[in-house]
């Protein structure tokens, strides 16, 4: 809010305050003494009154005057009843002083009128002011419920080369641009360009960006609205908003209508739980009606976005509606490098930084995550008064993006520090010595987010699919932490709960979804099942009690197998685990190169170990 607006906010109070002050200031009698008749008489006897004004009315006589007391003017006033001869008596009493007599009728009629009217004017202005503010204020569009909330951006600067990676997706979109530039060309050829395009993909993969880039390239107006904007408390509002939006859009053809999170309105009808179906269904119906109402090749393209295509109403996906689906997936290594390059354009990176290596270390990161990493790194660099962004800044930024900021102040006490170190070393050992396991990039025992310490691991190469062996290896490395605790301490910690949770989930999915157990390739569970996302509340479970028991048994079998494998590996690499754990206790964080140094019999920094250090290591272990 700028200063002007602040003043406007306080204006009503200023008006009231200043008018009150004015009333007091304009009224000099406000500060004078009020005397009754007897007091007035005794006053007139004792002091020399300087000036007196006597106003004789029909019933009362007003007396106002002043006298000098120690060179200070003292004002007084008095009102006395106008009985027979009273005024003459009074005037004779005042003989010594200078008296002016004012006729009651001649009292300043104007002053009196203004005095009566001014408060009304002030309050009237005040009321008008409040009312106009209420109406024009951004949030309080009480009378504009049915107006669409779509925001119109007409001069979009985003171009295709701002969207990195996504080459196939861009190719698909290229013809939309062509079409928006000259819809006629397609009509002549008898081609029907899809009216609706559904971009499907996890959050942050650049769906919005892609849609905007299309608008930017085609120089077309871009109406954007989020699915949740249609949903209001009142039934029918969503539908009329849809109507209004399409009406507005048709006036500026060719254009793009962008509906973010379409799953908020486009869920399967007649399913799910909780109230508000009717509203959602009406809105969805209206969208369908409006889409059908757009003539082919008229120049309106609707791009919608969702990360849950499975919950969408089939009617939305029919030909003539959102009949083109483009999947925007998480970027691969090359894509990540390209995205990093796009966002590094306006950042000062140190020369030694290799964006390719950074891309390699960030599997599973979305475009938004990568942008966030570079931004966090830039902030950290500023915080440390560094001229350029250096590698440690990027390291920390990656960790932050994955796990939240480091909790440097929440340090472990010595005993639990040792336990966390062995726990993490246990994970690392599995990563180092089990085939198929993912590579250890970095191990730390600095608490971060809700974790007491963690291992940064990346797959040796990125794969589209994972094999049973890969999954087993993942579970085994989750088990590594707990196993190490058991072997090296005769106690276990709560710190392993996250590991156990993840391991159990993988094992259960292996049995119920991927068909990777002795129960055979049968799906026992839906991949997605959330009643709040448009699934039926009491969708029948398709397993009998007996099979549920079998599933549990299979899950246990998988976990047991992995657990034993982890135990075997850790017992047979006790020397390495101690090396890593001790290095962790000393350094808190070690990288993959440092681990390599350790395993090659050197210090973490790659120096050849002399005898003293070795002894120290042994006593610590
Ligand atoms: P979505 O709509 O898929 O949730 P957005 O399009 O809003 O994601 O992306 C969020 C941000 O992430 C973008 O503003 C952009 O800075 C960054 N981003 C995502 N994907 C890419 C990409 N392929 N190239 C460049 N930046 C990207
Ligand atoms: Zn763990």
Structure report:
This protein has 621 residues and is of the alpha/beta class. Helix content is 49%, strand content 13%. The protein is elongated and about 125 Å long. The chain has 4 domains: 2-107, no CATH class; 151-327, P-loop containing nucleotide triphosphate hydrolases (Rossmann fold), CATH 3.40.50; 333-403, Helicase, Ruva Protein, domain 3 (Orthogonal Bundle); 414-599, Methane Monooxygenase Hydroxylase, Chain G, domain 1. It has 21 helices and 14 strands. Residues 137-143, 529-538 and 611-621 have low confidence and may be disordered. Helix 15 (414-433) packs antiparallel against helix 16 (468-488), helix 15 packs across helix 19 (574-587) and helix 17 packs across helix 18 (545-572). The longest helix has 28 residues, at 109-136. The chain has a 6-stranded mixed β-sheet with strand order 6-8-9-10-7-11, sandwiched between helices. A 5-stranded mixed β-sheet has the order 1-4-3-2-5. Strand 2 and strand 3 form a beta hairpin. Zinc ion binds next to helix 15.
Short description:
The protein has helices at residues 3-26, 37-46, 86-93, 109-136, 167-181, 183-188, 207-218, 237-251, 263-266, 277-293, 333-344, 355-360, 367-383, 391-403, 414-433, 468-488, 497-512, 545-572, 574-587, 592-599, 611-620, and strands at 33-35, 49-56, 60-69, 72-81, 98-103, 151-153, 196-200, 222-226, 255-260, 300-306, 324-327, 439-444, 454-458, 589-591.
């Amino acid at each position: 809010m700028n200063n002007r607006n602040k003043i406007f906010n306080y204006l009503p109070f200023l008006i009231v305050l200043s008018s009150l002050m004015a009333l007091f200031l304009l009224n000099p009698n406000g500060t004078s003494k009020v005397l009754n008749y007897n007091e007035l008489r005794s006053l007139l006897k004792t002091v020399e009154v300087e000036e007196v004004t006597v106003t004789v009315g029909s019933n009362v006589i007003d007396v106002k005057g002043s006298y000098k007391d120690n060179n200070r003017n003292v004002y007084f006033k008095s009102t006395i009843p106008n009985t027979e001869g009273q005024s003459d008596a009074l005037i004779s009493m005042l003989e010594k002083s200078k008296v002016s007599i004012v006729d009651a009728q001649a009292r300043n009629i104007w002053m009196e009128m203004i005095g009566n009217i001014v408060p009304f004017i002030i309050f009237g202005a005040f009321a008008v002011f409040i009312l106009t503010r209420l109406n024009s204020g951004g949030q309080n569009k009480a009378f504009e419920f049915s107006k669409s909330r779509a925001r119109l951006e007409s001069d979009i600067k985003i171009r295709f080369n701002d969207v990195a990676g996504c080459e196939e997706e861009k190719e698909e979109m290229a013809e939309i641009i062509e079409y928006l530039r000259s819809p006629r060309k397609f009509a002549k050829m008898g081609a029907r360009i899809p009216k609706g395009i559904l971009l499907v993909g996890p959050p942050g993969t650049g769906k919005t960006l892609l849609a905007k880039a299309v608008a930017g390239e085609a120089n077309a107006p871009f109406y954007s609205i989020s699915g949740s904007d249609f949903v209001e408390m009142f039934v029918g509002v969503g539908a009329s908003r849809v109507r209004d939006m399409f009406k507005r859009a048709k006036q500026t053809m060719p254009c793009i209508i962008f509906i973010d999170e379409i799953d908020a309105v486009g869920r399967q009808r007649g399913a799910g739980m909780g109230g508000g179906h009717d509203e959602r269904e009406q809105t969805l119906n209206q969208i369908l009606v409006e889409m059908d109402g757009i003539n082919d090749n008229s120049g309106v393209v609707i791009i919608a976005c969702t990360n849950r295509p499975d919950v969408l109403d089939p009617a939305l996906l029919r030909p003539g509606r959102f009949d083109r689906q483009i999947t925007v997936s998480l970027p691969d290594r090359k894509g990540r490098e390209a995205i990093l390059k796009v966002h590094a354009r306006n950042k000062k990176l140190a020369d030694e930084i290799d964006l390719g290596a950074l891309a390699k270390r960030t599997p599973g990161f979305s475009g938004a995550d990568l942008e966030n990493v570079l931004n966090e790194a830039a902030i950290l660099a500023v915080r440390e008064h560094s001229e350029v962004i250096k590698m440690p800044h990027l390291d920390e930024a990656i960790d932050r993006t994955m796990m939240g900021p480091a909790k440097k102040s929440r340090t472990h006490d010595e005993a639990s520090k040792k336990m966390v170190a062995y726990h993490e070393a246990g994970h690392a050992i599995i990563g180092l010595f089990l085939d198929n396991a993912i590579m250890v990039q970095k191990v730390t025992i600095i608490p971060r987010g809700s974790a007491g310490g963690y291992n940064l691991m990346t797959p040796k190469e990125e794969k589209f699919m994972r094999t049973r062996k890969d999954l087993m290896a993942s579970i085994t490395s989750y088990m590594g932490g707990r196993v190490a605790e058991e072997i090296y301490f005769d106690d276990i910690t709560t710190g392993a709960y996250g590991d156990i949770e993840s391991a159990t989930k993988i094992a259960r999915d292996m049995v119920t979804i991927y068909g990777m157990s002795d129960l055979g390739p049968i799906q026992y569970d839906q991949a997605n099942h959330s009643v709040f996302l448009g699934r039926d509340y009491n969708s029948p479970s398709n397993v009998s009690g007996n099979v549920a028991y079998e599933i549990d048994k299979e899950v246990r079998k998988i976990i047991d197998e992995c657990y034993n494998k982890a135990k075997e590996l850790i017992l047979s690499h006790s020397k390495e685990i101690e090396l890593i754990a001790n290095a962790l206790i000393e350094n808190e964080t070690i990288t993959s190169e440092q681990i390599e140094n350790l395993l090659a019999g050197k210090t973490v920094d790659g120096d050849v170990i002399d005898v003293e250090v070795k002894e120290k290591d042994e006593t610590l272990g």
